[in-house]
Amino acid sequence: MKSFDFDFLKLSVTDAVDIILVALLIYYVYTLIRNTLAVNLLVGMFIITVFYWIVKGLHMELLTTIIDKFMSVGIIALIVIFHPEIRRFLLLIGKNAFLQKNKAWWGYLFGRKEIERNNLTRIKPIIDACKTMKKTRTGALIVFVKFYDEQFFANSCEVVDAKISKRLLESIFQKNSPLHDGAVVISENKIKSASCILPLTDNDQLPSQFGLRHRAGIGVSETTDAVAVIISEETGEISYAKQGRVRMNVSFGELEKLLNKDF
Q1: What does this protein do (predicted)?
Q2: Torsion angle of C-alpha atoms 171, 172, 174, 177, degrees rounded to 10
Q3: Cα separation of 149 and 153, whole Å?
Q4: What's this model's pTM, rounded to 2 decimal places?
Q5: Distance CA 127, CA 55 (A)
Q6: CA neighbor of 186 nearest in space, from 137, 213, 220, 155
Q7: CB neighbours (10 Å) of residue 127?
Q8: What angle do CA 74, 75, 78 make, to 5 degrees?
């Protein structure tokens, strides 16, 4: 009887560590580009690569030469196309994001109630401000980011760097305030900046009643890891945008749970 050699399946400790590190790298890259425009770009590049091998196998010389020229600058094209994602990835490494996540896990294992209580204390001024603005139908866009990218926000925002408070949020979004026309960015338990001009979403499937405020909130959640709370000036309705998706007519109980999870 013919025997099979399975020596190639033998893994050393180094091989196992190598596989785990590659899997972690793929996972973190996936979390960075998930539900962003980068996914569509990546799919497009994959299709072009498959098409290249097909025309090359069929000996279609003209198409092969054209696509080959495009593929020859692939590395440069990747850097240009995925520039925002590369910056975010390096920012995560530079700010020890992986270590912070591990600390968070330990906190959840051994001090979950204390963490949730402290988090709800930080969220309360935001919820209270949203209640007032909903009642008065004051339009607002509040963006929460895990890591504040100064280069991303510096060119279009007024720096505030203040403690989160109900009155400050309400005063910023008052119609007579010079900072009301734009977004407030919250990070590291502070109001980092106000009057921010954000990229608008290209999604053409959104409801017709969504204006610039909603499109900006959805847009920033598509291109970054941010979440956005949007209060409609016309109806007072609260929406919650995350990863390019939006939940409409969010109650204050739901808003508290969402912010407690994401903020």
Answers
A1: Catalyzes the condensation of 2 ATP molecules into cyclic di-AMP (c-di-AMP), a second messenger used to regulate differing processes in different bacteria.
A2: 110
A3: 6
A4: 0.62
A5: 58
A6: 220
A7: 16
A8: 85
